[in-house]
Specification:
Blueprint lengths: L1 E6 L2 E3 L5 E9 L4 E9 L6 E7 L4 E3 L7 E6 L4 E6 L8 E11 L2 E6 L3 E5 L2
């Protein structure tokens, strides 16, 4: 079983910055990748970005150039640094961890943390 604990959400003004973190814990954790999704009000869940165990990062078009995804492998923690925030970034942000599971992969999700961008 894998537990994910997210933190760092809150209220931020347009143009501001925010850093989210997600710590994964569990026995014999073998992580393939860690990443972030978000779901805004009335919208479908949207992929934000991912970082692999090797450190390769990818990000969605809507946040490209405004986010930095990093990872502390020793702590099994992934970070999402968001800059130049816009009102449309308002959403619940979910951490996703993909682990090696048998011959395949398995996803786990955090509980979500609210980010509100408003003046």
């Amino acid at each position: 079983q894998v537990q994910l604990v997210e933190s760092g959400g809150g209220l931020v003004q347009p143009g501001g910055s925010l850093r989210l973190s997600c710590a994964a814990s569990g026995s014999n954790l073998s992580i393939y990748s860690m990443g972030w999704y978000r779901q805004g009000p009335g919208k479908e869940r949207e992929w934000v970005g991912t970082i692999t165990s090797g450190g390769r990062t990818t990000a969605g078009d809507s946040v490209q150039g405004r986010v930095t995804i990093s990872r502390d492998n020793a702590k099994n923690t992934v970070y999402l640094q968001m800059n130049s925030l816009k009102q449309e970034d308002t959403a619940v942000y979910y951490c996703q961890v993909r682990i090696f599971y048998g011959l395949g992969l398995k996803d786990y999700w955090g509980q979500g943390t609210q980010v509100t961008v408003s003046s």
